[in-house]
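Morning. Coffee machine broken again, so started the prediction first thing and wrote up yesterday's gels while waiting. Chain of 89 residues, entered below exactly as on the submission form.
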Amino acid sequence: MAIVKIPTPLRALTENKTEIQINGKTIIEVIDNLDSLYIGIKDKILENGKLKHFVNVYVNGEDIRYIDSLETSIDNNDEISIVPAVAGG
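Came back before lunch.
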């Protein structure tokens, strides 16, 4: 199982869990499996089947946009971080 790090803005959907262990062979499978447990989380990460522009996803510290995006392969014990962009000014 992979470990998904849940950012503060999404914890309201995950019963305030900071980490979730979940199965999936690719990022999209992990997101789909997360959404089956925590309905609505997928809509916070994806738009029209693609990562939202202000959401970054990392596997073991590597940005999936520079690997295979949502088809990035996941192995057991991989750490997935969902990082929404923060704007300030």
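Residues 32 and 42 are 7 Å apart (CA to CA). Going to sketch it on the whiteboard this afternoon.
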